[in-house]
Amino acid sequence: MGLVALLAVSLAYVLYPDDPRAYPGSDGGESLDRNLARAHMVLPACGQPSARYAAHWDGLFPSYLFQLRFTASPGCVDEFLQVNHYTALPEQGVAFFVSRAPAEYGWPSDQWKKYTIVPVAFETTSPIAVLIAIDSSIDPSDVFVKFSSG
């Protein structure tokens, strides 16, 4: 029995290796691309090199949390918004989810920092929330995404 379990774990690791872009503590075994697909999101190639993410499942209550950070030029941020059919609000606002991310992610901790906010709405029967905050005061811009369902 122990050998079968070891083989199963080894096979799972070979078929679904941990993505080096995943933050520590992320539920392993699924790539960034798989998590983007689950979140109904596309990350253009220009945002891929800097992308870091975390994905968490709660098996007791079927819920899913996907957090993504990437840096990008203004043109790349525009491409990300356009390809996903998102529209940024013209005014700045606070994004508490950025400062409340786990410390090991290295996200900014200033809870009152102002970001360009991108509201996202889905027409679905299951509860889905998407929060996007963009810090365009720096170049390249910092983009933070939080997707949750369940």
Automatic annotation (TrEMBL):
<protein>
    <submittedName>
        <fullName>Uncharacterized protein</fullName>
    </submittedName>
</protein>
